[in-house]
Design a protein that fits this description.
Blueprint (H helix, E strand, L loop, with lengths): L3 E4 L5 E2 L2 E2 L1 H14 L3 E2 L13 H15 L4 E5 L5 H14 L3 E5 L8 H13 L5 E5 L1 H4 L5 H10 L3 E6 L4 H11 L4 E4 L5 H6 L4 E4 L6 H12 L3 H17 L7 H9 L16 H13 L5
Parallel strand pairs: 1-4, 1-10, 4-5, 5-6, 6-7, 7-8, 8-9
Antiparallel strand pairs: 2-3
Length: about 290
């Protein structure tokens, strides 16, 4: 259902407001590049700094701009269960294809708390749900046992975005949950290593910038064409890494701005890259052929 290449789409701003025209252009680029879908208002979409109204509006825009040509896996997770339910139910009403549910952050729930949180969200919607484990940002990991328990309890929890940086987790999840459970890599640089042990694609930051190339890399890996996949990985590996030279989504928005695709605008506490890191990223983009 949610396999292949999904772009964690940025939220472009202009003069403090959502730049709807720029967002439409970005999504049209994804459609033309034949990615499988987009993920609006996730980490890369700056979900922590948009209002509830803006969050819902971005999902609405994304569904309209995708126009059924690619899927929309809406970021509707939160560290408040009520907020996650509110956002998820709105995403369902607006026609999203699914919901990406990040582990609650800052309040550091126990595994029992995580189970009850995700169970309540799943019960509130008919949308298929992809869990999102990213302990580096959230302070908690969704344990394999908790994922297994949730899948047994909630029929609409169908997959996970795994962003803990450890391919062994993919093997553990695959062994515990079988071949039908969907596992997506959450780190561009680890896509091939994750897919080698059972992941079925990537939720990508880099595909904001190079959607066709990332999609081809994933397609090649899925088809067992390891040589072609490795060639693309090697070509863009330094870009995958340098897009995290500072906190995501600062580098990817800076890179898109360098190419004139969006205004380079963030909301505090995010700020533009340092001059040194900007030059490093710029040089990498030129080396990879994505900036003249």
């Amino acid at each position: 259902m949610f396999t292949g290449t999904y772009t964690a789409i940025v939220t472009p701003f202009k003069h403090g407001q959502i730049d709807e025209a720029a967002l439409e252009r970005l999504i049209q680029l994804q459609v033309r590049a034949e990615v499988d879908g987009i993920v609006p208002v996730g980490t890369t979409g700056e979900s922590p700094t948009v209002s509830y109204e803006e969050h819902v509006h971005i999902i609405d825009l994304s569904v309209r701009f995708a126009a059924g040509k690619i899927k929309v896996l809406a970021g509707t997770g939160a560290n408040s269960t009520n907020e996650a339910i509110f956002l998820t139910q709105n995403a369902e009403k607006l026609g999203a294809d699914g919901s990406l549910q990040v582990a609650p952050y800052y309040n550091k729930p126990t595994q029992e708390g995580l189970f009850q949180h995700f169970r309540e969200v799943a019960r509130s919607t008919k949308l298929p749900i992809v869990l999102y484990s990213i302990p580096g940002r959230c302070g908690v990991e969704i344990s394999v046992d908790t994922v297994k328990r949730l899948v047994r309890t909630c029929k609409n929890i169908i997959g996970i975005k795994e962003a803990g940086g450890n391919s062994d987790r993919v093997s553990q999840l695959r062994a515990a949950l079988g071949p039908r459970f969907e596992i997506m890599c959450g780190d561009d640089a680890l896509t091939l290593s994750f897919m080698a042990v059972g992941a079925q694609g990537v939720i990508s930051v880099a595909s904001n910038l190079i959607p066709r190339q990332v999609a081809r890399m994933v397609q090649s890996a899925a088809a067992g064409q390891s040589k072609a996949a490795r060639k693309l990985h090697d070509t863009y590996y330094s870009l995958f890494k340098d897009l995290f030279i500072e906190s995501n989504p600062v580098p990817i928005k800076g890179a898109l701005a360098m190419r004139g695709q969006i205004c380079e605008e963030y909301r505090l506490p995010l700020v533009p890259m340092s001059a040194k890191n900007r030059e490093t990223l710029k040089a990498t983009m030129k080396k990879c052929g994505v900036l003249r």
